[in-house]
Amino acid sequence: MYGVSKINIEPSLMMISVQDAEFKGNTMARYLQIFADTGVVVDMISQSAPHGTSMDFSFTASSGDLPLVMKAISAANLDKDAKASPLISVGYSKLNLFGEEMVTSCGVAARALNALAMAGIEVLLITTSDLDISLLVRSENEDAAYEALKKAYEL
């Protein structure tokens, strides 16, 4: 079990990425607010460490929200303070690992990443919390990733 007691899959996701956004306190908040105002529910928010005066960040949304995402991107492109245009890529699934011992099992994420690497599956985003670990993989790898994780955690 190794700290994980349940794995579930969320299919049909897209990733929205913003590269070389200006690094200042409200940049990511401004972009996320534009998406929220448009009605897009986002998840797996991930930010890179700043590089110089810019930063990169990404988040996921349901592929079913593509019309809303396109509307949000149009609004972001009209924002005079937004220097970077969000990019969309589709065809992802998220695998969520849950377990009561998640907090005390520091090797849980390492085991997941290693199991997927050994199966030849690339992890595009990973987010962690006290309650779960979320891994974004390409949709075509969803079943193989699920099986590799089940095996790794002996579920």
UniProtKB/TrEMBL annotation:
<keyword id="KW-0418">Kinase</keyword>
<keyword id="KW-0067">ATP-binding</keyword>
<feature type="domain" description="Aspartokinase ACT">
    <location>
        <begin position="96"/>
        <end position="152"/>
    </location>
</feature>
<comment type="similarity">
    <text>Belongs to the aspartokinase family.</text>
</comment>
<dbReference type="Pfam" id="PF22468">
    <property type="entry name" value="ACT_9"/>
</dbReference>
<keyword id="KW-0547">Nucleotide-binding</keyword>
<protein>
    <recommendedName>
        <fullName>aspartate kinase</fullName>
        <ecNumber>2.7.2.4</ecNumber>
    </recommendedName>
</protein>
<keyword id="KW-0808">Transferase</keyword>
<dbReference type="InterPro" id="IPR045865">
    <property type="entry name" value="ACT-like_dom_sf"/>
</dbReference>
<dbReference type="InterPro" id="IPR054352">
    <property type="entry name" value="ACT_Aspartokinase"/>
</dbReference>
